[in-house]
Amino acid sequence: MPQRARPFAQVDVFGAGPYLGNPVAVVLDGTDVDDAAMAGFARWTNLSETTFVLPPTTADADYRLRIFTPGGEIPFAGHPTLGSAHAWLTTGGSPRRPGVLVQECALGLVELRPATDEISFRAPEPLRTGPLDDDLLARIARGLRTDPAAVVAHQWVDNGPGWAAVQLATAAEVLALEPDDALMGELVLGVVGAHPAGAPEQFELRAFCAPLGVREDPVTGSLNAGVAQWLIQTGAAPATYRAAQGSRVGRRGVIAVRHEDGGTWIGGASTTCITGEVEL
To answer: What CATH number has the domain bearing residue 155?
Structure first.
């Protein structure tokens, strides 16, 4: 297909203010863009994710979304889900059901709640759960350059990208980590620790995902979703809390978590920072 101009937006997601969260590039008309062109454009933007909005293939969805990292397509990701929904709504998209937005993606249907100040998505059911095995924990400790005894809990929290997660005793320990890139290898890993009582955010997270083409992701909706399901289920977190992510990479991400109506909801601010057209 010949190239043509397509509406485009770059949206900052989860930021405590503009340009403090995680940007996603959104091509608002991905019709007839082939897989190679999508992957190539995602590599070119060099953002953690680039998305393409398409007509849904089911009457239950408002639109379909394909999500690419610089390393290839993934079935689901959180901040691209929120940022793409924000871009779709602010450029004239109208949900079929008032107050409910349904995104179709490779993982299935994802329900969102649009609101004036933030959009939230219902965390999908994990594809893999359960404790990590001893060999993997040893690899993680070596990669993080930390004592294995510093890991106070661990769990698979994979909802598409492949997340494993470990919990350290404190947020300060999480922020102090200096991973060994070579030893991290193929790990897609989230690390979480608690802030002191009375802090504005209850938890600090970091996301290391070199296999997806991103050494450390600034603010990660899918990881926060999986970690929230894990921590709330085990009683290690309250049903409603706020998490922080991104300070080690110069960001100030804030993630709102709440467990209600039988599900875990992940929300945050979305701000359109760039609009225009892209030739694809």
So the answer is: 3.10.310.10
> By three-state DSSP, how is residue 76 classified?
coil
Strands 5-13 and 214-217: unpaired
Same domain, 78 and 10: yes
249 shares a domain with 153: yes
pLDDT in tens, 51-110: 999 999 999 999 999 999 999 999 999 999 999 999 999 999 999 999 999 999 999 999
Helix (H, G, I), strand (E, B), or coil: what is residue 232?
helix
Q: How far apart are CA 56 and CA 183, in angstroms?
A: 41
Residue 197 to residues 171, 194, 200, 202, 240: CA-CA distances in angstroms?
A: 11, 9, 9, 7, 15
Pairing state between β 63-69 and 101-105:
parallel
- Helix, strand, coil shares of the chain, percent, nearest 5, are 25, 40, 35
In whole angstroms, give the CA distance from residue 76 to residue 29.
Answer: 19
SS3 category, 81 = helix
108 plus 147 within the same structural domain: no
Condensed to tens digits (0 to 9), the pLDDT of residues 190-215 reads 999 999 999 999 999 999 999 999 99
User: What b/e string do you get for 96-130 counting C-beta neighbours within 10 Å, with b at 16 or more?
Assistant: eeeeebbbbbebeebebbbeeebbbbbbbebbeee
Q: How far apart are CA 70 and CA 47, in angstroms?
A: 7
Q: Which residues span the domain enclosing 143?
A: 134-264
